[in-house]
Amino acid sequence: MKYLGKKSLSSFLSGILHVSWYVVLVLSIIASVTGAMILFSTPVEDPAASGIAKVNYYMFNELKNDEDWQMIKNLPLAVRFLFLPYFWVVVALLLQIINKSQCLFTNFKNDVVFNKSNVCVIPKICKLLIGFSIITCNFSSLLVSIILLILCGIFKNGTALQEEHDLTV
Amino acid sequence: MSIIFRLDRVMADRKMSLNELALRIQLTNSNVSILKTGKARAIRISTLEAICRELNCQPGDLLEYYPDEKNIPE
């Protein structure tokens, strides 16, 4: 399998990440609107309602028997207000990670591997991933990001060697 | 760096252009330019040999050493 260059795993990942950035953006907008509706609106009891009220009716009917939903519904309004900023922070981090990863894989696609821009981008991805892991309490990705941060040191040395090689005439 | 590559001076003395030298020693123009501008970190013995052959000079004509203040023993 080819990892670098055109028609390789890197170019495939670059394409996937490019598409997923837009998908995540659109889905997060939809999710935040829906989430706000669920969190802050009161249930509509009338099945003959129309428009948004009809959506509201069906949504609350679906959630009626959900235990998690009951728990969220019983939370004070101030706590419920925190859900949206938390969600936006998670989405912003995710979008940043996808964007930076796409830059990295585009460089790999163009056979630019040991390069100063890559050396700058990889630690940024690692730090964003650490933040993301802490916020979402995902300790396996935290471990992966820490290992990746250590591997950055090797990448940095590789770039120095490449520079040395390029300037040897 | 305290070693200075004097390729530009020797080339001017021999009235040889960068393109011509690059062609003769079979290096790319950009690599000869790196040598000429002193950006090179290292030079292969084979490259030095080719330059000396084409410019009819000694390695000492191409390289000059200027000791830094730090390098002077007390």
How would you describe what is shown here?
The complex is a heterodimer of chains A (169) and B (74). Chain A has 169 residues and is an all-alpha fold. Chain A folds into 2 domains: 1-94, no CATH class; 114-169. Chain A contains 6 helices and no strands. In chain A, helix 1 runs antiparallel to helix 4 (77-109), helix 4 (77-109) runs antiparallel to helix 5 (116-135) and helix 5 (116-135) packs antiparallel against helix 6. The two termini of chain A are 33 Å apart. Chain B has helices at 7-14, 18-25, 29-36, 45-55, 59-62; strands spanning 3-5, 63-65. The radius of gyration of chain B is 13 Å and the shape is globular. Chain B contains 5 helices and 2 strands. Chain B starts with a strand and ends in a 9-residue tail after the last strand. The longest helix of chain B has 11 residues, at 45-55. With 74 residues, chain B is mainly alpha-helical. Chain A binds chain B through residues 163-164, 167-169, and chain B through 27, 31-32, 34-35, 39-44, 47.
Described by the principal axes of the CA atoms, the overall outline of chain B is globular
Return the structural class of chain B. Answer: mainly alpha
Which oligomeric state applies? heterodimer
Low-confidence parts of chain A lasting 5 or more residues at pLDDT below 50?
none
Name the features.
heterodimer; A: 169 residues; mainly alpha; 2 domains; 6 helices; 78% helix; elongated; B: 74 residues; two-stranded antiparallel ribbon; 8% strand
Break the fold down into its secondary structure elements and pairings.
The complex is a heterodimer of chains A (169) and B (74).
Chain A (H helix, E strand, L loop, with lengths): L8 H32 L11 H12 L3 H7 L3 H33 L6 H20 L3 H28 L3
Helix pairs in contact in A: 1-4, 4-5, 5-6
Chain B lengths: L2 E3 L1 H8 L3 H8 L3 H8 L8 H11 L3 H4 E3 L9
Antiparallel strand pairs in B: 1-2
